[in-house]
Design a protein that fits this description.
Blueprint: E1 4-9, E2 12-24, H1 34-44, E3 49-60, E4 63-67, H2 82-88, E5 98-100, H3 106-109, E6 125-128, H4 130-137, H5 149-162, E7 167-169, E8 175-177, E9 180-184, E10 193-199, E11 202-206, H6 214-217, H7 231-248, E12 252-253, E13 263-267, E14 272-276
Parallel strand pairs: 4-5, 5-6, 6-7, 11-12
Antiparallel strand pairs: 1-2, 2-3, 3-4, 8-9, 9-10, 10-11, 13-14
Keywords: Hydrolase, Metal-binding, Zinc
Protein name: Glyoxylase-like metal-dependent hydrolase (Beta-lactamase superfamily II)
InterPro entries: MBL_superfamily_lactonases (IPR051013), Metallo-B-lactamas (IPR001279), RibonucZ/Hydroxyglut_hydro (IPR036866)
């Protein structure tokens, strides 16, 4: 089974690595009636609420950039295939020179460290937002939090420690690498970010985690998920960005879109519809 798919964006070679997949349960979408979920799954021809965990490898201007790194071994045997994907692409961990974390949730950064807390990518600089770094570094933010969230914070802190002298700030309009621009997408976490890659007159947008369950949240972007720290703000970000992407006809990807995960979006009667995106 292939773990990767690659497209050329201008002078850049961009590969989506499918680190793994799981299914969500309906209770993760508070305020959404079970019959609404059933109807949307039927429309999508899906039996379950499917999601993927994606990393993105970019080879551009002599740089090797990895955006997000999957959940490693944290989510069971259906995940943790980042290393396999990199091998498939002929890239060794020590060749990665730049890491970008859209945010510090475990399904995006666990693959950046070993179970012992050592950096997997020994030659890489890690870009994170100041807001996410500050939020996950403060233990008092997680007193009385949902079960397991304090462990997420410990993992985030371990990632920050592992790359401590190789951390840089990702911010709106700042380049993490040539042509790779930070893009603020507030709501999911305090410093949740996406990015835009521009090369040779072509572009790819990474929307982070504005969508977790494509079969539900694309046709009905009002549906929130309880992983969002500010669900209302995340909802507004999702609606704004999907509308912008539809208007621009932009090629995009994200942390949880299903294979092949290069998408375009069009307006539908009550929301939006995904279609495979190719330049």
């Amino acid at each position: 089974m292939r773990r990767t798919i690659t497209q050329t964006i201008g002078d850049a070679k961009v590969s989506i690595i499918t680190d793994g997949a799981v299914t969500f349960t309906p209770d993760l979408f508070p305020g959404t009636a079970p019959e609404t979920i059933t109807d949307l799954l039927t429309q999508a021809g899906a039996a379950e609420i499917e999601t993927n965990f994606n990393a993105v490898l970019i080879r551009h201007s002599g740089r090797v950039i990895l955006a997000d790194a999957g959940p490693r071994d944290l989510f069971g045997p259906s995940c943790g295939f980042l290393s396999e994907g990199l091998t498939e692409l002929g890239v060794a961990p020590d060749q990665v020179d730049t890491l970008v974390a859209t945010h510090l949730h475990p399904d995006h950064v666990a693959g950046m460290i070993t179970p012992e807390g050592d950096a997997v990518f020994a030659n890489a600089t890690l870009f994170v937002t100041d807001a996410d770094r500050a939020f996950w570094s403060e233990d008092t933010n997680f007193q009385g939090a949902l079960s397991g969230v304090a462990d997420w914070a410990k993992l985030a802190q371990s990632v920050l420690a592992a790359y401590g002298d190789r951390l840089q700030t990702l911010s709106e309009g700042k380049e993490a690498a040539p042509g790779l621009w930070g893009m603020g997408l507030p709501g999911h976490t305090p410093g949740h970010f996406g990015w835009r890659l521009d090369s040779g007159g072509q572009s790819l947008v990474h929307v982070g985690d504005i969508v977790h369950a494509p079969a539900l949240q694309v046709p009905n972007p009002d549906i929130g998920i309880n992983f969002d720290i500010d669900m209302d703000q995340a909802r507004e970000t999702r609606k704004r960005l999907l509308d912008q992407l539809a208007s621009e006809g932009a090629l995009f990807t994200g942390g949880h879109f299903l294979h092949p995960a290069f998408n375009k979006v069009t307006r539908a009667a009550t929301g939006y519809s995904l279609e495979p995106g190719r330049i």
